[in-house]
Amino acid sequence: MESNVIANAEAAVQTHHHEPQSFWTKYVFSQDHKVIAMQYMITALIMGFIGMVMSWIFRIQLAWPDHNLPFMRFLMPTNMESGTLQTPGYYMLVTMHGTIMVFFLLTAILTGGFGNFLIPLQVGARDMAFPFLNMLSYWFYFLSCVVITVSLFVSTGAASAGWTSYPPLSALAKATPGSGLGQDLWLVAIALFIVASTMGSLNYVTTALNMRTKGMTLMRMPLTVWGIIVAAVLGLFAFPALFAGAVLLLLDRHLGTSFFLPHLVLGGEHIVRDGGSPLLWQHLFWFLGHPEVYILILPAMGITSEILSNGARKPIFGYKVMVGSLVAIAFMSFIVWGHHMFVSGMNPWLGFAFVITTLIIAVPSAIKTFNWLGTLWKGNIRFTTPMLYAIGFISTFVTGGLTGIFLGNSALDIPLHDTYFVVAHFHVVMGLSSVFGIFGGIYYWFPKMTGKMMSERWGKVHFWLTFIGSYGVFWTMHYLGFMGMPRRYFSYESYQFLPPSMHTLQIIITISALIVGAAQLIFVVNFLYSWLRGPKAPDNPWQATSLEWQAPTPPPHGNWVGQLPEVHRWPYDYSVPGASVDFVPQTVPLEVEPSGEHHRTAVAVNGHTNGHSNGHHA
Amino acid sequence: MKLSSRQAFWYAAFLLVFTAIAAYTVANKTWWFPPLASVQGGEIDNLFMITLVITGIVFIAVHVVLAYFVWRYRGRPGGKAAYVTHNTPFEITAAATVAVALVILVGGGTTLWTKIQSPPPADAFTVEVWAEQFRWTFHYPGADGRMGNVDVRFISDDNPYGLDPNDPYAKDDIFATEMHVPYGKPIAVILRSKDVLHSFFLPNFRMKMDVVPGMKTRMWFTPTQAGVFEIPCAELCGVGHYIMRGVLTVESPEQFNDWISQQTPVGMSQ
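Output (structure tokens, whole complex):
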């Protein structure tokens, strides 16, 4: 069976995989997963940079209300004409910051970027199962980025109903300035993005299930592949709900339907609709929205697991449990969405059930944390830049996960909901943690992607400023949440229940955010300079075991020269007793070096012969 | 490997310093909740403190262990990692411990949630609320003591609050721009929106409920003190979201009666 698949894949290589020769087919309309990965990654990083600059502008408003930044007139002529941010501009910025960061940066880079680069290389395939679909996925993503960017420049302004785009605010042009053409473009961009994501996800799952090389059983796949394909499955099941929601909202906006709109009176004018409910949108949105945060975190968990094992020179602790808990989290993520709606007017008894499912999901999450600590335990830790980020991930995931226990418990959610406590929670657990996974992953795989090494020295500077600065931003925000400061406030000066000390906190947050922002400039320079001028990377700079490190650097079209590699062991044979080095690549036969895979541990430790493998060749 | 030691030292030091600052500022309540003013808020605060202690222990423990591992197992020249792949009894114990802590929190949480979401006591004093961009209006019964029906469909220039023209109880109803309630009774609130989503937030009472067009939503709470409190809107409702500020005055029944008697019933002007 397995060999048939490989034979087919090899046949495919011979008939279809002629290396493209022209500039256009090689670098622009490429069907090579590695080129598409770079396209996704660079586009997503540019979008992320735009999203970050937006956060600087509204953070400055929050720390120093009515500041004057004359140069901003050129960047935002309509909303900062005097150099001071106007209210509609503020709401557009917070909306677009959230949208861009969640979809166009994090989702795109983790699945489109890392998924594309790593899946074929780590399972031993020459490319994705459907290279043309893969190319199409990128170009739909590119198109969605163009649409969302263009929406910033329409005369009525970009969408400003929040990244959740709750109707009626997002359904009626009169409700808020951004609810004109900007909101239409927002919905179209999201729909295009979902099309792109679906084409990508089909590829990731199909490739990992059908195109693994000889010996690469499912339980020999690195946790990165597991994290990405489980996230892809989540996307395939969850994104259609938002796609449907986007289409229905467009109908409500333009064709007078009443999916999300009851009869209402806006600005003294009757909007005659009947029977719709704004809660329906919230259900559709969060049916995607909650799995979505796991679409971001599961690949980051996979990347972190991979780096921690490599950096500690130890097998990942509890590999099977790690796979199991990924799958458990993914399954549970479909039945917790209502915890975003405890005080939405949804039937409170429904909230009861969502409390229970939400806190159950904490169990597999906690197990993963223990296993990461277990991986470091008795290790021989190398403090490379990727490893700094992977260790940071453990800290941010725990910090953000624990605050989720407050919000997931409906009674505690009542005072905390829609305050800065929520903003702090999701930024730490799903923003910072996935960003740490992404940075760790970029530093780790950059040598394989580009054939060059990044500067470790500047990587460490980047890490420390980012790590300390991010906690400066997001830990501090929890205090604003305690005080009861509602999120999405343009200014807060007329409220007496907020103590004056909150102003100090706002300034600390903004200064920290600007420091983190400056640190990202270091990253950009390091990335570009290293790509152009960095020292040449060896094939396996981190002395890693997984398959991609056995490919040439950077891997050629088709990934491997000659035959596809054959896999003889799991990807975590670090520091195996009796082995001649502290890492044994997956391609090394068991006759040459011992393995600690699964139940062979005891055999290896006791020093008996283990040349006899456990029958997977049959 | 010298660099390894330096990174390990600073990493461990940062984790410990961060944990210490975080734990101190939270335990010291340096930046904390606004003063408490309701019975239900007190129960929420208690559950919050229990959750804080449990999660706080985990937060500190994980960070201390992480800092220790980072320093203790830093790479050394010629160092070798131990070979450990898994430990099933450890996994089971850890998962069970987490599960027990979560059962305690879920138990406390759902019990309290049930209590807060139950119908208000029969003696509760009811206020109805209209939310719209960007203000709150508070609806009281008139001299007949009965609240008239309202519906968004009835709203017109002459009937800005949508009173039902066929409802005899609606003739003398009172609409005020500030919320006043008598001290000593549970307060029930019925929330309606004319236009978009809003959220009725009472930071001092630890209460919040979204206001949804097309629906009636509810909350109730028991004030523990008289005073003047603020009602910020907590659901993005447009450009004026941040200035949608209401005021709630909890006062003695006598003061409340004085206040309500000074309000002009809307029905009289019709």
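Chain B has a mean pLDDT of 94.
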